[in-house]
Amino acid sequence: MKYHPMARFPLRFSSIFWTRHDVEHDESEVFKCFESNVIIVADDAEGVPLMIAAKKHETILRRGRAYRIEGQVAAGGRNSISTVFEDVVNTIAIDQAEVRVNALVNKVSAHGVGQIVDWDLRSASEEGCYNEVIKVLHWCTGSSGERVEFHANWLINAQVAESISGDALCAGNVIGLRGNVTGFLSRDNTWEIQVTEILLVQCELKRRQSRRQQGLSPATSE
Question: What pLDDT is stored for residue 117 in this prediction?
C-alpha cells in the first residue's frame, strides 16, 4: 500500500471538555466556536487554550457545560489556538457535578496518522530512561475548506518501542499512533503526546540511513 502525497493525515482528540464563551466565526456560516482548554498540569486550571468548532444547526453544545467530545484537530502556526472539529454523533452531555478539574489532567486521548519528519531522543522522568521522539506531520481541512498542516511530537518509551522494527521511526514513514496528550510547546503550537500504542507503520523503500538506524547514543542527541 502506497500513500498518496495528498492523503489526509488526521489527528483526533477525545476527552471531556468544558465549553466557555461561544465565539462567532466570521469566515464560516457553518460553524460556531466555543472556548475550551486542555489541562496538562494539575495546578493549572486554565490549561492550554483550545477552540471547539461545532456545526451550528446540528450541535447540542451550549456554553458553560461539560461534554465528552471527539473530533479532528487543526493546529495553526505560532501564537495561534488549536481547534477541535466536533463529531456530533459522538458528543455526550456530562452532569457538571461529576466533573472535577483534577480528574481532567492528562485525560485527553489522541490518535492519528501522519508522516514522520524527524526523530530524536529525550530524557524521560525516570532516571536513566529515554523517550524516542518523532515529529509527525498531520493535516486536515479547516473550517473554510483550506488545507491546514501542522506537526505533533509523539513520545515513545522503551516498552512501546520494543514492538517495532529498527527502521520503523525513520523520516518519511507513515505511522498510526494512539496516546495521551502530556505537553504543549506554545512557541510553535505543537502538541506532545505520550504513545500507548503503535497502530501501523508504512515504510519508505528508499532513503538514507536515519539517526535511529545509526544507533546514536542519548548523549549525542543534544
Answer: 96
